[in-house]
Specification:
Elements (H helix, E strand, L loop, with lengths): L4 H12 L5 H8 L3 H13 L19 E9 L4 H12 L4 E6 L7 E7 L2 H12 L5 E8 L15
């Protein structure tokens, strides 16, 4: 799908304000409401916009410890990776799982938990017990310097 300046502007606004009304969105980008709504629907139907969600404050939910975990696998087979992918996908504490290169690890996980005790339980009772996990290295996040999910949509 070829994106023009209106589509890009719609995407920029919706990434920051997903609950904005169509009228206000149309006013912001300089279109009337009907063509604005058609464009939003087209962006949704083509899969450029994949969904909308609420952003929660982890600390207010008691989730005060964030960690990055590098995982090494014993074998690099499609079955091992598929099993690991499914297992970590089922863990609600895992916010992000990336298959990576250039490290001594195969995966990087971003996890959030209540405290060190909850981290220990997650790591020792669940993550290290996934078949194929052969090495784990954890780093704890002291402070989030940049925390955004908006993608650059310039032309």
């Amino acid at each position: 799908m070829e994106l023009d300046r209106y589509d890009r502007r719609i995407l920029e606004v919706l990434q920051k304000e997903g609950r904005i009304s169509n009228q206000e969105l149309a006013d912001r980008i300089g279109l009337s409401p009907s063509p604005c709504l058609r464009r939003v629907r087209a962006l949704e139907e083509t899969g450029v916009i994949t969904g909308y969600r609420a952003v929660l404050d982890a600390r207010k939910l008691g989730l005060t410890l964030m960690a990055l975990i590098h995982i090494s696998m014993d074998r690099h087979t499609p079955e091992r990776f598929a099993n690991f992918d499914a297992a970590v996908g089922a863990l609600p504490e895992v916010l992000e799982c990336l298959l990576i290169t250039g490290q001594d690890a195969d995966y990087q996980l971003k996890v959030v938990v209540r405290d060190m005790e909850a981290f220990q339980e997650l790591l020792l009772s669940r993550i290290t017990r996934i078949e194929g996990v052969s090495g784990v290295h954890s780093s704890f996040v002291m402070r989030r310097v940049v925390d955004k999910s908006a993608l650059p949509v310039e032309g």
